[in-house]
Amino acid sequence: EIREAIAAMIGGGPLAGRHVVVTSGPTHEPIDPVRYIANRSSGAQGTALAQALVELGAEVTFVTGPAAAPLPDHVRLVQVETAREMADAVQAALPADVAIFAAAVADWHVEGARNQKIKKTPDGAMPALEFAENPDILATVSKLSDGRPSLVIGFAAETEKVVEHATAKRARKGCDWILANDVSDATGIMGGSDNAVTLISDAGAEAWPRMSKKDVARRLAQKIVDAFADETRPKG
Amino acid sequence: EIREAIAAMIGGGPLAGRHVVVTSGPTHEPIDPVRYIANRSSGAQGTALAQALVELGAEVTFVTGPAAAPLPDHVRLVQVETAREMADAVQAALPADVAIFAAAVADWHVEGARNQKIKKTPDGAMPALEFAENPDILATVSKLSDGRPSLVIGFAAETEKVVEHATAKRARKGCDWILANDVSDATGIMGGSDNAVTLISDAGAEAWPRMSKKDVARRLAQKIVDAFADETRPKG
After folding, report:
1. Quick check: ipTM above 0.90?
2. Tens digit of pLDDT for each residue in B155-172?
3. A81 lies in which domain range?
């Protein structure tokens, strides 16, 4: 890894000259100054991906929500809190050769989040929260007519019918690859160090064995290297 | 501190023989397997309190939500996630001489939290969330007719009219003391290392200067020592 890090710094590696945007971590959507809606993403898979890409020479812009996992080194770091901030940061980071959306982005935010702490009322009722949809970062970037990255990769954290849901998601969003995983409680994947993913692409669904998040990252990074090699290889 | 820790271990210190229950950290209220409602408590003030009490010889049961701050040493540790779990853990930890409720407990939980991840609908609408009130741990313990701790101390994290709200909270809950603080964004207290509190008691409101959370903890621990000394001192 040291050799690769040095190679990356002096400009070597199969991804040298490639700019990759990686999103990572959860987003936090404020309800009021002290409360927010969060999700269980630790950011560990995103950090591992950024690290693997840097080791192969890529220039990585790492757009991260408030993650518990350590942040990667040698990246351009952009720290955000909400999905809307993440969408803006991704937009600002383009153009890129590859975009990998590993963050667990909230689908909704609380409309009109309060400036003051919500107090309990005498009857104990919770003030109604109104939700508004967040920007769909994966679909937006996948469907860019101008400046779309060559390779757009999404993640699908599912708790049931993993391949079916992820395949539908890939078609709906218009991305190239989806890494789908099962985050049911029983798997221990959310917040754990292992991951068990299925790569969904034009070629169908490829189930990878359960392995560390670092190994998932290395394998995906290698797939990206291969994809660019195929692209530049003379036909026939 | 080493001297005090050793004194505590061999049973010395002014709080030797006293059992103190301290709650700390945020609670997380699940929405579905991947989403939850959280709050910005780091648990730093609770950890500092537990540490200060241990140093004075107290036996501390530390009931904590998923906190970012390091956990205290030499305590009986009980880790919980939701407000309902915290209420049960506090109940199980009694009897105690003192109860200090420093956790930022969610007032509500999501009724009927989903077992499967909530999916976006084609129209982007968020499924309605129904909220139910959480048990009020501070009020419940303050109003125990049997086995109430001699000293029940609450916290009030406010964003406006701090003393007014906290004084009303003290009366409503029936606790002995309230440590009130202003957690508006501008103060930087939520998640920071300093705190600026006002102690509300029968004697009125006593504003403490802004100091580290460790110093707030030491000062409160000393107040507790003094309260027990007054109690046992012969009248007149």
Report:
1. no
2. 998 888 999 999 999 999
3. 2-111+126-232
